[in-house]
Amino acid sequence: MTERISDAEHAVMEVLWKRAPLTATEVADQVVQQKDWSLQTVKTLLSRLAAKAVVGTERDGRRFLYSPLVERDDYLTGVSRNFVDRLFGGKVMPLVAHLAEADELSADDIREIEELLRELKK
C-alpha cells in the first residue's frame, strides 16, 4: 500500500486527481477555495507528497508540473483495507454493524447496501 497521507496532503491530492498535471500555483488556486493556505504551504505539501512517491514532478521551463502517481481508487482501496484490518480485525461486517447501531446508516444507505449485495450475489 502507498504510504499514508495526511488530511492536508489529501486535500492537495483531490485537486490533482481531478485534473493534472498542474503547477503549484494552480493547485493552490484550487485548494484555497476550501482552505486558507498560502502558496508556500501548498508547495510544502507537494514536496512531501513527492517524497512519499505519491506525486510526480516534471520540469516545465522554470516551473514544475505535478501529477498523481497513485490512482484515487487504488489509494482509497488501500486506506479502506488498512482501516478495516486495524479497527475491525479485517472483517467488514463489524464495521457495518457499528454504523447501524450508531444510527449512522440512513434508509438510503441501507437500500444501497441491499442493492450492492444483490449485485454481488449474481
TrEMBL record:
Top-level lineage group: Bacteria
InterPro entries listed in its UniProt record: BlaI_family, WH-like_DNA-bd_sf, WH_DNA-bd_sf
Which is a Pfam family this sequence falls into?
A: Penicillinase_R
* Keywords, alphabetical: DNA-binding, Transcription, Transcription regulation
Family named by the database record? Belongs to the BlaI transcriptional regulatory family.
Record's protein name: BlaI/MecI/CopY family transcriptional regulator
What is the source species? Parasphingorhabdus flavimaris
